[in-house]
């Protein structure tokens, strides 16, 4: 990569068809905003400068960009007068930049980085302008790529401005375009709005470029790459496509998915080989599952690291800050939050472990609860190695149970239990001989 790279991401569209208060490009796919997908791709191809063009109608988009990339990466287009006008809005933010720039759309953010890399390379090798195109099954609505006799790209004609012959062309414009920055802005300055929509079309830079003696190239990719999102229906389609990709990638990396269609990933989910995932499992953000673990059916896992050989579920909920060591067992109806489990520790049934450290080989009985919250603050529970927590123990934090200690079943533990001790905190049992029989007899006496 010899030439410097930059990216201009267009995000000034209104997105009214989403029918949402949330701006379109902040809607998420795989747990990541579409805009962040576009930014990640731009950074992935080595764009040293990334400028996002935003409208004035949704300040949240500009704030999002400023937070992620800095205020200098925000360019405001006001009012939106077309895609060429939008790209021009980024000119100032790229002042002094000498290199190649790619234009992408924040609402079509799934063009793979490899494709954009190839577009940059095509342009760098052959000079001029390069456009990413695709053969549309139904090209209605897309700009058509009209080739000249020599196979070069002659011009792009928008649907509304196309004649019948041009409309018959299936080779369509994805919107992704790559050019030398200086040339691009020079050409953009010549774009006029004398077209059916009365807008400044970015696509016009192709004909203008050719007229000025620049070469123009098309790189074709699959239509699915350019999937755009304009509505909640299309958002769900994009999500489905993303999930398909993740499931396939997981299986190709050696993960067993018994029912792939019912397993949901986030963009950053990391699953090592020889992990088995049973049906109906949801992975939120920030999950890592190490080799050989098994995630049983119906688990909801978020912000958790699962150690090698561990078993989780069925019906377990792992929340952010969960770190399970090797060969840990988390059974059914167990919730874990902000807690660590040492090797071979287990909580097999009906348990809440929050803000806690559980030592290696500790066994938490059925119904163990860490009482971590007093309505104002959170407190930590420390459970040592080889500890045995009796069923239905309430551990009122802050509290420590030392190594090898036991707690008696049904205890409410409010004081530390020393290593090797038994902590019991419950009323002693008394048996009242004959009470039940007498009671039954009294209740069953016929009424006078
Ligand atoms: C555009 C292309 C068309 C291509 C299609 C692919 C033009 C003139 N046409 O058409 O050739 O086949 O995309 O989907 O470029 N935007 C702004 N400011 C504006 C207008 C648009 O930021 O003033 C942004 C939108 O948010 C969107 C993108 O640019 O992300 C494309 O705009 P859109 O109105 O969807 O263009 P199309 O008519 O679909
Ligand atoms: Mg569009």
Identify the CATH homologous superfamily of the largest domain: Spore Coat Polysaccharide Biosynthesis Protein SpsA, Chain A
The CATH topology of the largest domain is Spore Coat Polysaccharide Biosynthesis Protein SpsA, Chain A
The appropriate CATH architecture of the largest domain is: Alpha-Beta Complex
How much of the sequence is in beta strands? 25-35%
- Overall geometry comes to elongated
Q: Helical percent range?
A: 10-25%
What oligomeric state do the depicted chains represent? single chain
CATH C-level class of the largest domain? Alpha Beta
Unreliable residue runs: none
Largest sheet: 20 strands, parallel
Distance between the termini: 102 Å
Average pLDDT works out at 97
Concise overview:
This protein is α/β, with parallel strands linked by helices. Uridine-diphosphate-N-acetylglucosamine is lined by residues 10-13, 53, 77, 80-83, 85-86, 105-108, 142-143, 156, 158, 172-175, 201-203, 228.
Structural write-up:
With 448 residues, this protein is an alpha/beta fold. The protein has two domains: 222 residues, Spore Coat Polysaccharide Biosynthesis Protein SpsA, Chain A (Alpha-Beta Complex), CATH 3.90.550.10; 192 residues, UDP N-Acetylglucosamine Acyltransferase, domain 1 (3 Solenoid). 21% of the residues lie in helices and 30% in strands. The protein is built from nine helices and 34 strands. The strands form five sheets. The chain has a 20-stranded parallel β-sheet that branches. β4, α2 and β5 form a beta-alpha-beta unit. α6 crosses α7. The relative contact order is 0.07. The model has no long low-confidence stretch (mean pLDDT 97). The structure holds uridine-diphosphate-N-acetylglucosamine (UD1) and magnesium ion. Uridine-diphosphate-N-acetylglucosamine binds next to β1, α3 and β10. The site of uridine-diphosphate-N-acetylglucosamine has 28 residues, from β1, α3 and β10.
